[in-house]
Amino acid sequence: MSSYSQIISDISHVSYLLQKAQVCYDLSPINTAIGRMTKFCGKDGLIGYSVDKLKFQITDIPRGTVPNNIEILELCLNIEINEKKLKEQEVQYPIKVDENLSYNFSLELDGWDKFAVCHYASWHLDFDKKDEKKVDFIHPVFHMTFGGNYLKKKIQEGNDFGHMLLLLSPRIPYPPMDLILGIDFVLRNFFKKSQIQGILENSQYQRAVKNSQYRLWRPYMLSLAHYWCGMKNCLGFCIDDGLEYEIMPYLMK
């Protein structure tokens, strides 16, 4: 289990690598978060921080992007998290949310075409604990959804979204992410491997991602495994070697 100082150290190492690779415009949102974490984290058993508008510059537009004349693409990562320190044997929510504490995770994308017209997209990851008996549609506690407040705001500002249809469904189950896992998500989905290879192969980066996955994804995955194996007989299963990395390629070996 990572200590508070280890989490801060991991974030600092990842921030340095982003700066070195020049994939972010401005790292001050991370520096501000680190400063607040150093002063306040751990006093109430939580490690909490928020990062607003961590902006990535995507110079190589992903293949298949529509409109197909996008020339400049920017992505902003926003996150607010209050992480609990769980014991090794505890399988429960690793994030605390109440009337005073929130979990927010969103990706905001702006793409300018050759006519300098801006196009928008956004994704958000929610931690929204609902009583399934009281909702009209299935509502996984942690879920990823396209759209959200960013696109709603752009529509309210009068931007033309053509014939796009925005729905709250489906809410796709996805494990929780902190800042490090959010950065890894952005790098792996929006940057070519050749551009970020130096980051992905860095041992400190790999260790930072692995630490976050252990704290946040291990309880999530074990809770799902418990549905079938009850935490008792899984060792007797015949599992294809490497299957977990094919199913979830984000997992750090």
By DSSP (H or I, 4+ residues per run), the number of helices equals: 7
Approximate helicity band: 25-40%
Shape: globular
Count the beta strands: 6
Q: Strands of the largest sheet, in order across it?
A: 1-2-3-4-5-6
Estimated radius of gyration: 19 Å
Question: H/E series, N to C?
Answer: HHEEEEEHEHHHH
Q: Structural class, please?
A: alpha+beta
Largest sheet: 6 strands, antiparallel
Low-confidence stretches: none
N- to C-terminal distance: 17 Å
Strand content: 15-25%
Average pLDDT score: 87
Please provide a brief summary of the model.
With 253 residues, this protein is of the alpha+beta class. The protein has helices spanning 4-21, 28-40, 149-156, 179-190, 193-200, 203-229, 243-247, and strands at 46-58, 70-84, 104-113, 118-127, 142-146, 172-173. The longest helix is centred in the C-terminal third of the chain and has 27 residues, at 203-229.
Topology:
Blueprint lengths: L3 H18 L6 H13 L5 E13 L11 E15 L19 E10 L4 E10 L14 E5 L2 H8 L15 E2 L5 H12 L2 H8 L2 H27 L13 H5 L6
Antiparallel strand pairs: 1-2, 2-3, 3-4, 4-5, 5-6
